[in-house]
Write a structure and sequence with these properties.
It holds the Pfam family TPR_8. This protein has 583 residues and is mainly α. The protein contains 30 helices and no strands.
């Protein structure tokens, strides 16, 4: 009997053990699968592939609809996208809380929305949530810290660092995820402690599965510190490790935009668009980036594809900018008004007021009612003055206003021509991207004193070679000789801005004239700038007699500037000199 009982027990134990092994193995496999799925979602968000991340998190919800945390991960994608969708995020966070009243992550999500909207009481909410959790869960501590670093105006980096150090300590036994260190680095960046931030990124590098992510962050940190060589090295290293890591191309685009290498930046954005996904939020960001490099065609093309799929009212603002550039002031005005009506007040910027002013200036050009025209002009001046007073540099306000108020260039056909010009026009028509031909045609127009033709041809050169400084200088000369002083001053300024620091010594004489020309053209409207630029012209070329004379006159009590005739003689000399510039 005992033997039978023992045999029975042994058989029972064996069966139970086998079943337990199967159950345990199943649970273990499920946990691994869940961890892998969650990790894939986190990596997708980090790679700015929000559509893929949402697909992953939706699958997690489908498999485990009663798991409150799954709703947090999905909602969080709407906070971390380029333009947060607070309503959509709140929808999922509330679903999680409905399933579990203690859903700490979802509560942190709702507190994060407060921070995103500028409400600092979200910080106290997060502290209370962490306190309720008894600081036992590393992920709760991490997400709390992440929330405190997500929005600059409502950040709390010291508290975030405290939570992250605790999260790292809690996670130590299982292994610290790289993104804990990423966020620690971000917190130190907010505190302007780049050394500590880089140390955190170094720690992330030691555990990261994809070091491209780490190197990209290091690169952007070096950019923030204006260490451009080191920044480029890290960004290049990120792309070398993972050529499909989209954020690295976005960082490279920002690097090239800073160096005013728009052609390279455009190629970077093409790669970014290639490796980021088709999520409307990402595509909207791409459209905005194209706009920043003056690639209006690609910006419009990208925006049009996703316009009806995007809920964020910022889409109306971007389209308003594009319509403004196209000279469609009425439609631009409608879209800008739509943005201002739909957007939260804290999202309406000084630049938006400036754009409104430019649009009003455009509308005033065709307004026939004197009273309405006067009102538009008054409002336009006030809005543009506001943007300028705030030193907003979204657009070159004076340049854009000059284009509207008489800055438009007539046809090249209105000016003189000759057999050389006509022959070159035929060649350019057959080879519109041949910059050597454009260079020859622009100089032929200048020699014939066809200033419209010269301006328009130099503009074609600028479109093809946006970083080639001499084109702006020559265009300035053509504008000036054609009598369009506002546009001339702007072209000269662009020339000055485009000359790289390493090339200043080789271009001192030409730079001196550009500064002198702006000083002369601004002497009646902006005396402070005229004095600054006249002094700079003399500094660059002390033997430049006209610049020295103007500098002395501008700083004398009884200013008697050089005559327009003297200036015109100087222009003629410079126009002649410019035709000898090699391409």
């Amino acid at each position: 009997m005992i033997l039978i009982t023992n045999n029975f027990k042994m058989k029972y134990i064996m069966n139970v053990t086998r079943k337990s092994v199967i159950v345990i193995a199943s649970v273990f496999s499920a946990n691994i699968a869940f961890a892998q799925t969650l990790e894939e979602g986190i990596q997708s968000v980090d790679s700015q592939k929000y559509a893929k991340a949402r697909d992953i998190y939706n699958q997690m919800i489908t498999k485990s609809p009663d798991e409150a945390e799954n709703y947090f991960y999905l909602g969080d994608t709407y906070l971390t996208q380029f333009e947060p969708n607070f309503d959509k995020a709140a929808e999922y966070f509330n679903k999680g809380i409905a399933l579990d009243k203690k859903a700490y992550l979802n509560k942190i999500g709702l507190a994060t929305i407060k921070l995103g909207k500028g409400d600092k009481s979200g910080i106290a909410d997060i502290q209370e949530i962490v306190k309720d959790s008894r600081e036992k869960d590393a992920d709760v501590l991490y997400r709390a810290a992440e929330a405190l670093t997500m929005f600059d105006e409502t950040s709390s980096p010291d508290l975030a660092i405290d939570y992250l150090n605790k999260a790292i300590e809690r996670a130590g036994r299982k292994g610290v995820p790289a993104y804990y260190y990423y966020t620690l680095g971000d917190a130190y960046r907010i505190k302007k402690m780049p050394g500590d931030a880089m140390n955190a990124y170094d720690k992330a590098s030691a555990v990261a599965q994809n070091k491209a992510s780490v190197f990209t962050r290091m690169g952007t940190l070096w950019m923030a510190a204006k260490q451009w060589k080191l920044a480029k090295e890290k960004i290049d290293a990120a792309i070398a490790i993972d050529p499909t890591y989209a954020p690295a191309y976005r960082a490279l685009a920002n690097y090239d935009i800073f160096y005013q290498q728009n052609a390279k930046a455009k190629n970077d954005l093409i790669n970014y668009a290639k490796y980021a996904d088709e999520d409307p939020s990402t595509q909207l960001e791409i459209a905005k980036l194209y706009f920043t490099i003056d690639d209006y065609a690609n910006s419009k093309l990208t925006l049009d594809k996703i316009f009806d799929k995007v809920e964020d009212p910022i889409k109306y603002k971007l389209r308003a900018y594009l319509l403004f550039q196209d000279g469609n002031y009425a439609m631009a005005n409608q879209d800008l008004d739509m943005f201002m009506q739909k957007a939260e007040k804290n999202r309406i910027l000084d630049a938006d007021k400036g754009l409104k002013g430019l649009i009003q200036a455009g509308l005033a050009k065709t307004e026939t009612d004197p009273a309405k025209k006067a009102a538009l002009i008054a409002s336009s001046n006030a809005n543009i003055a506001l943007a300028k007073a705030k030193k907003d540099a979204t657009l070159d306000w004076d340049f854009e206003l000059a284009k509207i108020n008489g800055g438009a260039i007539g046809s090249a056909e209105d000016g003189p021509t000759n057999p050389e010009i006509e022959n070159l026009k035929v060649q350019v028509q057959a080879n519109p991207k041949d910059t050597n031909l454009l260079f020859k045609l622009a100089n032929a127009y200048q020699t014939a004193q066809n200033w419209n033709g010269a301006v328009l041809t130099w503009q074609k050169m600028i479109n093809l070679l946006p970083d080639w400084a001499p084109a702006y200088y020559s265009q300035g000369l053509a504008y000036q000789q054609g009598g369009n002083n506002d546009m001339a001053a702007n072209s000269y300024q662009k020339y000055i801005d485009k000359v790289k620091p390493a090339d200043v010594d080789a271009n001192k004489q030409t730079l001196s004239y550009a500064y002198f020309a702006i000083a002369y053209l601004k002497k009646d409207s902006d005396l402070a700038k005229a004095k600054e630029y006249a002094a700079k012209a003399v500094e660059l070329n002390p033997t430049y007699e006209d610049a020295a004379k103007l500098n002395k006159e501008l700083n004398s009590t009884s200013m008697q500037p050089a005559s327009d005739n003297t200036m015109n003689q100087e222009i003629q000399k410079k126009v002649t000199d410019s035709t000898s510039t090699s391409n």
